[in-house]
Every structure is written in structure tokens, then in C-alpha cells.
Design goal:
Structural class: mainly alpha
Number of strands: 2
Largest sheet: 2 strands, parallel
Number of domains: 1
Helix content: over 70%
CATH superfamily: Skp domain
Strand content: under 5%
CATH architecture: 2-Layer Sandwich
Length: about 190
């Protein structure tokens, strides 16, 4: 107990000492910090890269959904045959066993396919968010330098901010400029 008391007192003394210290890099100690705020969602929804990535993601999602729907249709047809007593009466025991085996195999395949698609979509979504996040960071840095801002925050990390602190339109515009620049540098076959 005595050891903890000494450690606590030493920590408090260190904190008190540090709280009176001057900032290391800031020469104007009384100058207000200039802050900008970026709405990431706006940057994703309104930028060219965001729209392109969303369209690619949706196309992949629709393609996967069509594969699943087709398998579900086949599985539904097999289920209807298995649930129809009149149709089962017309089948030989071997045919009925084969139908049940086919149904189980297709059900398992569907389950694996859905799991695989879910993982693929999650991974693709993560990559899209990471790519756009990197672009937002680069664009925010450029805008911050141009506006002489000390700090740029994601609006999700703020409980409140004044409207005039929102630099999202400027960041989106810079992202579009960078997107156009990159598209110009890519050969036509690689440009999306």
C-alpha cells in the first residue's frame, strides 16, 4: 500500500510539473488553434472516387445476389418435389433417396456460398473504406495547408461543431482533383 501511495504522489507531481510546461512546437502560446472538420460520409457520397467505388461494390453485390437467387430457385424446386406426396409416390425409393441427397448437397453448397459472399463483400467494403479514407486524409492535408489549419477532425469524433468549420466540400473537391489527375496518368485500359 505504501508503495502505491509513493507512485501516486510521484505521478501527481509529474502531471503538475508537465501541465505548466510550454508547448514544444508552438511559438504563439496564446494563438487559437485553427480547426477544420470533415464529414467522411459526405466525401464518400459526393466524390468521384466514392461514387465509382460504390458503383463497383453494388455491381459485385448484384452479381453475387443473382448467383444466390438462381441456387435458391433450384433448391426451392427440389424442396417442392420433396414436400409433394403425390410426386414422391410416383418415384422409386432410389430416386427419392437421390433427390434427398441432392437437396442436402445443394443446401450445404448454398450455405457455403452465402458465407463466402458475405466474407467477400465485407473484405471489399473494408478495402473501399480504406482506399477512400487514404484519399480523404491526403485531401484534408492539402486543404489544411491551404487554409493554414492546425487540425482536421472527422466529424464523427466531435459532439458539436460550428457549420463554418466544415471543410468537407473543399476536401471532396480536392479528392475529385486527385482522382482526375490519377485517371489522366493511367493508360486507358487501367482507368475505371
Amino acid at each position: 500500500m505504501h508503495k502505491w501511495l509513493l507512485i501516486s504522489l510521484a505521478s501527481m507531481a509529474l502531471c503538475c510539473r508537465l501541465s505548466g510546461a510550454e508547448p514544444l512546437e508552438r511559438s504563439e502560446s496564446n494563438a487559437p488553434i485553427k480547426i477544420g472538420v470533415v464529414n467522411f460520409k459526405v466525401c464518400v457520397e459526393e466524390s468521384k472516387i466514392g461514387k465509382q467505388e460504390q458503383a463497383s461494390f453494388e455491381a459485385m453485390k448484384k452479381q453475387m445476389e443473382s448467383v444466390v437467387e438462381e441456387k435458391e430457385k433450384v433448391l426451392g424446386d427440389l424442396a417442392n418435389k420433396l414436400n409433394n406426396p403425390d410426386e414422391l409416390d410416383l418415384m422409386s425409393p432410389e430416386a427419392e433417396t437421390e433427390l434427398k441427397r441432392k437437396f442436402r448437397a445443394l443446401s450445404q453448397e448454398m450455405s457455403q456460398l452465402q458465407s463466402q459472399f458475405y466474407q467477400t463483400l465485407n473484405q471489399a467494403n473494408f478495402q473501399v473504406v480504406q482506399k477512400i479514407s487514404e484519399m480523404v486524409t491526403k485531401a484534408s492535408e492539402k486543404v489544411a495547408k491551404a487554409l493554414n489549419l492546425d487540425l482536421v477532425l472527422n466529424d464523427e469524433s466531435c459532439f458539436f461543431t460550428k457549420k463554418d468549420r466544415d471543410i468537407s466540400p473543399l476536401v471532396t473537391k480536392e479528392m475529385d482533383r486527385q482522382f482526375d489527375e490519377e485517371a489522366k496518368d493511367k493508360p486507358p485500359a487501367q482507368a475505371k
